[in-house]
TrEMBL record:
Naturally occurring in which organism (per UniProt): Quercus lobata
GO BP terms, alphabetized: proteolysis; secondary metabolic process
Protein name in UniProt: Carboxypeptidase
Entry-linked InterPro entries: AB_hydrolase_fold (IPR029058), Peptidase_S10 (IPR001563), Ser_caboxypep_his_AS (IPR033124), Ser_caboxypep_ser_AS (IPR018202)
Species classification: Eukaryota, Viridiplantae, Streptophyta, Embryophyta, Tracheophyta
Alphabetical list of Gene3D superfamilies matching this protein: 3.40.50.12670, alpha/beta hydrolase
Keyword presence, Signal: yes
C-alpha cells in the first residue's frame, strides 16, 4: 500500500512538473511573439525630451529592393493604451515628395515641439495630450524613396509615380510585418492627407489585391482615412471658385460672371473670357494662405513671429482658426500639398520645390522640424543612415521626379467601399488648397444612398463640423475652423474623430 501511494505521488509530481514546463514554454513562446520587434530598432531616448516615453518607439529601415539598395524609413509609435488589441495605422503625408515626419512633428505625433529660444539649440519636446498613439499603434513612413530619410543607392528609383509608390509601400508593409508579426492580428488602417489622397486608396487597393491572392503575411485590413485629399483632377480643380465665393473671398458679381462664362468648368478655361475671369479670382485670393484662409502667410526663409502687423484678418476671425498647440508650432503655416491649378505636364506632378525653383514651400515655416531632424544626435537616436547618402532632411524633397499615373481616385474608392472596407473622407473647412467643396462633390458623385443625412457632429460638447454618411461605409466629414492639416489646427477634435472611426463608433 505504501509503495502504491509512493507511485501515485511520483505520477502526480511528474504530471505537475510537466504542466509547469509546458506553461513555461507557452510563456516564453508568448513573450517571443509579443516582443519580436528588432532590438536594434528600439529608441531609448530623444534629444530635447527628458521624461520617460509613454510607450515604446521604434525606427529604422526596411529594404524593399536588395538589388537597388532601396530603403524606406519608418518611425513606429506603439499604442499607449493596449498595443496588442488597438488598431495599427500607417500614416502618409503627401506632396508628392513630403516627409511623414510632418505628421509626427506638427500634427498627431507623441510630442509637441517648442522652438528653441536660442539659435543653435534644439527644440524642446513635451508629451502631446492629443497624440494619435493614445488610441492606436502608428507607423510614420517616408515614401517614396528619395523623400525624408528614405533613399535608394540607385538614383533611377527617384523617378517614380502613383502606381510604383503604391507597389513599393505594399512591399514595405509585408516586410515590416515580418519584423513585427505580433501586430498582424491587430485591425489595420491606412491614413493620410493632401496628396496622400492618391497614396492611400492606391495602396489600399494593392493591400486588398494581396489579401485576395493570399499573399503572406495576410494583413487584417479594415479601412482607410483621407484628410483634405487630392482625388480627381476635374472635381478638385472645379472646387476652388465655389469655395472662394462661399467663404466671401470673391464677390457675387465675379462668381456670377465665372458661372456664366466658364459654365462650371474652372479647371480648364473654355474661352479667353473665362480665363480672364479666373485670373481675376486668382488675383483676389492671391495674398491668402491657401492652407488656411484665416492664417497669415510666410514667404521669406527667415523664421518670423506672428504679430498683429502681418495678420490681415480681424482678431474675431483669427480666433476661429486658432489651435491649442503652442505658438512656436503654429507659426509654420502648414505647407506641402499639390497646389490648386498647378501645371501637370506629361503626367508629371511637380513638387513644391520644383514649382518654386528651390524656394521654401509658400506660407510655411518648417524651422522646428528642420533643425531637429538635421541634428546629428537626433539622427543617431532614430537610427538614420550616416554619411552622404541622405544629405539634409527637407520637409519636401526635390530629389524625385513624380508621375501622376493612377488617374482619378473615384474608381479606387468605389472598388474598396463596394468590398465593405470603411472609408472616412474628412476636410478642414478653411483649406483652400484642396477645398472641402471638392471632397463633398466627389463623395456625392459616387451615387451611394445617403444613410446619415447632413448634420452637425460634436466634440467636447461643441459642434466640431458637419457630416454626411453613405451606404457601403463611406463617410464625409468637415472639421470647423481647420485648415489643410486638420490635427495641427484642431488636435482635440482630430483625435476624437480618429478614435471614433477606428472603433467603428458613430461620429
Amino acid at each position: 500500500m505504501a509503495k502504491a501511494t509512493s507511485l501515485m505521488f511520483q505520477l502526480q509530481y511528474y504530471n505537475t512538473l510537466g504542466l509547469a514546463l509546458l506553461s513555461l514554454f507557452y510563456i516564453i513562446l508568448t513573450l517571443q511573439l509579443t516582443e519580436s520587434a528588432p532590438d536594434s530598432a528600439l529608441i531609448t531616448q530623444l534629444p530635447g525630451f527628458t521624461a520617460s516615453f509613454p510607450s515604446k518607439h521604434y525606427s529604422g529601415y526596411v529594404t524593399i529592393d536588395e538589388s537597388h539598395g532601396k530603403n524606406l524609413f519608418y518611425y513606429f509609435v506603439v499604442s499607449e493604451r493596449n498595443p496588442s488589441k488597438d488598431p495599427l495605422v500607417l500614416w502618409l503625408n503627401g506632396g508628392p515628395g513630403c516627409s511623414s515626419f510632418d505628421g509626427f512633428v506638427y500634427e498627431h505625433g507623441p510630442f509637441n515641439f517648442e522652438a528653441a529660444k536660442t539659435k543653435g539649440d534644439l527644440p524642446k519636446l513635451q508629451l502631446n495630450p492629443y497624440s494619435w498613439s493614445k488610441v492606436s499603434n502608428i507607423i510614420y513612413l517616408d515614401s517614396p524613396a528619395g523623400v525624408g530619410f528614405s533613399y535608394s543607392k540607385n538614383t533611377t528609383d527617384y523617378r517614380t509615380g502613383d502606381l510604383k509608390t503604391a507597389s513599393d509601400t505594399h512591399t514595405f508593409l509585408l516586410k515590416w510585418f515580418e519584423l513585427y508579426p505580433e501586430f498582424l492580428s491587430n485591425p489595420f488602417f491606412i491614413a493620410g492627407e493632401s496628396y496622400a489622397g492618391i497614396y492611400v486608396p492606391t495602396l489600399a487597393y494593392e493591400v486588398v489585391k494581396g489579401i485576395n491572392a493570399a499573399v503572406t503575411p495576410v494583413l487584417n485590413f479594415k479601412g482607410y482615412m483621407v484628410g483634405n485629399g487630392v482625388t480627381d483632377e476635374v472635381i478638385d480643380g472645379n472646387a476652388l471658385v465655389p469655395f472662394a465665393h462661399g467663404m466671401g473671398l470673391i464677390s457675387d458679381d465675379l462668381f456670377e460672371k465665372a458661372n456664366k462664362e466658364c459654365k462650371g468648368n474652372y479647371n480648364e478655361p473654355v474661352n479667353e473670357t473665362c480665363r480672364s475671369i479666373l485670373n481675376k479670382v486668382d488675383e483676389d485670393i492671391g495674398g491668402l494662405n491657401i492652407y488656411d484662409i484665416l492664417e497669415p502667410c510666410f514667404h521669406s526663409t527667415d523664421a518670423r513671429d506672428i504679430t498683429t502687423a502681418n495678420i490681415r484678418l480681424p482678431s474675431s476671425f483669427r480666433q476661429l482658426g486658432e489651435t491649442e498647440r503652442p505658438l512656436a508650432v503654429r507659426k509654420r503655416m502648414f505647407g506641402r500639398a499639390w497646389p490648386f491649378r498647378a501645371p501637370v505636364r506629361d503626367g508629371i506632378v511637380p513638387t513644391w520645390p520644383q514649382i518654386l525653383n528651390g524656394n521654401n514651400v509658400p506660407c510655411t515655416d518648417d524651422e522646428v522640424a528642420t533643425s531637429w531632424l538635421n541634428d546629428a544626435s537626433v539622427r543617431k537616436a532614430i537610427h538614420t543612415e550616416e554619411g552622404n547618402v541622405l544629405g539634409s532632411w527637407e520637409l519636401c524633397s526635390d530629389k524625385i521626379e513624380y508621375y501622376h499615373d493612377a488617374g482619378s481616385m473615384i474608381k479606387y474608392h468605389r472598388n474598396l467601399t463596394s468590398r465593405g472596407y470603411r472609408a472616412l473622407i474628412y476636410s478642414g473647412d478653411h483649406d483652400m488648397c484642396v477645398p472641402f467643396t471638392g471632397s463633398e462633390a466627389w463623395t456625392r458623385s459616387m451615387g451611394y444612398k445617403i444613410v446619415d443625412e447632413w448634420r452637425a457632429w460634436t466634440s467636447n460638447g461643441q459642434i466640431a463640423g458637419f457630416t454626411q454618411g453613405y451606404e457601403k461605409n463611406l463617410t464625409f466629414l468637415t472639421i470647423k475652423g481647420a485648415g489643410h492639416t486638420v490635427p495641427e489646427y484642431k488636435p482635440r477634435e482630430a483625435l476624437d474623430l480618429y478614435s471614433r472611426f477606428l472603433s467603428g463608433k458613430p461620429i
